[in-house]
Structures
1.
Amino acid sequence: MTQVSDGFVRNIAIIGGGTAGWMTAAAIIRAMKDYPCTVTLVESGDIGTVGVGEATIPPIQLFNRMLKVSEDEFVAATQGTFKLGIEFSNWRQKGDSYFHPFGKYGADIDAVPFHQYWRKMHRRGRAPALEAFSLSTMAAKAGKFSPPSADPKSVLSQMSHAYHFDAGLYALFLRRYAEARGVKRLDRTVRDVRLNAESGFVEAVVFDDDEELCADFFIDCTGFRGLLIEGALETGYEDWSHWLPCDRAVAVPCEQFGAPLPYTRSTAREAGWQWRIPLQHRIGNGYVYCSEYCDDDKAVSTLMNNLDGAPLSDPRHLRFTTGKRKKFWNKNVLAIGLSAGFMEPLESTSIHLIQAAIAKLMTVYPDRRFDPIDIDEYNRLTEIDYLRIRDFIILHYHATQRDDAPLWEYVRNMSIPDTLQHKYDLYGSRGRVFRYDEELFADTSWVAVFEGQGIQPDRYDPLVDTYDEEKLAAVLERMRRTIVAGVDSLPAHEDYIARHCAAASV
Ligand code: FAD
């Protein structure tokens, strides 16, 4: 066991056993395996979890690698499938569709981004649609999948993927992992939180039967309730509903329909949008909507009338307010997951934010003084994560051309954050994208959504004109053909799953 100082945080209490609680427990017990510290997780069987959150983005692979779990084992245990991106239908206009892929478009030439060459040639009728240059998009549309090739010369080395999984099975998978390594689990309901009268720090959580759990450090994973961060510490919440007005969701699983698609589908509807997440044993569906423009009954009928298979349960209703906690970390309480904030799952970012929170925690791991300088830095960096993701999600709404329903009229005309306006100005001028503050979404993502939503400026980077046009046409054609040949060589998604990671039948 590693020697530690007197001030070492020895007792960590994680309150909440949803995806956030179990991801945090698994990661901490793994990172702290050589240190004298106990990790206790409290979850309430009476309260349960939010039970949604089934689509992810590629960085989740880093999390799995950190835990040293095998991809095949993890996918099989969670009835998982592979995800190559998101298809957005009806967002720009009804009947219109575009794909936001993982991985890159084409290859940059002479340090000028690929999309700049493509934009020139496409406008001249000398290049096909952008998606022809995305391996992930073409593979997704062909229903093909294989993990990236280890050969850097192969186009298949550019595959980039994430997962769809059953949220309940994911929490169970992580619970087994964490308990096997020493996390203690209590199935109890927290009734109260006891604060130190002088410092205001949390000393203990109090259960229904008046028993207490004391700890040095509390991680609030109690979901939308925010039992410690808000209920006890009254940290405050920044409401972003004026930019992201959807505030409800209704979710229902349905029977599998055909082979599972290797991508998520997001279909804009009258007062919001519907998700479709294919798993091995079912499809997850939900309608995220704005209660100002749609009542709950209408939302249910919209969802139930747009399922690909028979529903497997009654619809579940969820309510939320988009925004974030004013501080994610306050005194000796760190909020992770829905207790920290919420942005609708349009780009599957919530589970990523849990992972990002855990990674940051490990870089500023506290001692029992809880130095404000570390806490402030954690809050500053996490705030940047939230703001940049928020801007990207707002873009999908604001860049719509739809005028057929009040929600779309509102979002098309609303004012937007200055940081997003700056992105618009740069793209609208010459199609330029810059990545600020290590933001999550790289240029492929911004280009996919700008172009897909119809922000398509005529001008492009002037350096593109220094490249001979005939030579450029030939290069682009070669890239396109390489992708076609690469996709042809891939197995069907369902065959890959059957061979490597089929779940036990249910
Ligand atoms: P919860 O799952 O709500 O867990 C809270 C835990 O706290 C539970 O164990 C509960 O029992 C416990 N608890 C609460 N109160 C008490 C108490 N008093 N005593 C003891 N225990 C208590 N994210 C994505 O990345 N991709 C998606 O596709 C996606 N889709 C989503 C769709 C919708 C409609 C919503 C609302 C969210 C979606 N998310 C998605 C977000 C994702 O679901 C969450 O980030 C994730 O599930 C983490 O939730 P959580 O663990 O913070 O909260």
Note: The chain has a mean pLDDT of 96.
2.
Amino acid sequence: MNALISPSILSADLTQLGADLRACEAAGADAIHIDVMDGRFVPNITFGPDIVAACKRVTSLPLDVHLMIVEPEKHLKTFADAGADFLTVHYETCPHIHRTLQTIRELGVKPGLTFNPGTPLEPLNLLADMVDLVLIMSVNPGFGGQKFIPQSLEKIRQARAILDLHGSKAIVQVDGGIAPQTIRENYEAGARNFVAGTAVFKHPEGIAGGVRALRQALA
Ligand code: DX5
Ligand code: ZN
């Protein structure tokens, strides 16, 4: 199955993060999604580079770091040094997005670019060859457990079309409200990387049950 599942530790039990990460790995997750929030770009405040470094020590899964912070360019090296494999920045926070993506690449990290639900994708035409990942936000960022915004499906189709037009092999990732009920339509629209917090960590049968339910919905 060419669908990658990235549990978001925003919904993990932080009193036992190491155990949760090992459970994700055992459940066959493909990457770990780490939501960095600054209380400015988004209302919530979460993790910094020390958490990324701590995750690096307990899992060999790629670390996919989603930067929901203003002036992300000030912190790219710190997160790269902490062990990020992907660094995803928001189009809305980057007036010099071309340079920011270039810097991420120069740091030896895979660049990701994300767009909020209300942000058009047109600039992706100028940036398609600079990214390894395009994240379509399917909720307004800041919190887990929100409802999937259906218009995201059309944006996923658009993102895939723009990337294909420019010959880019970048993956389309979707984040927010991904659950067994929504994952399939996102796959059909062209997403291949699924971030899931609630659906993995709050599943009644635990982390393995959560990952299994998402895979089953795609089968
Ligand atoms: C939202 C974050 C997401 C969040 C998704 O701002 O970017 O990664 O963890 O949570 P769920 O899967 O619960 O919608
Ligand atoms: Zn995220």
Note: Residues 97 and 134 are 13 Å apart (CA to CA).
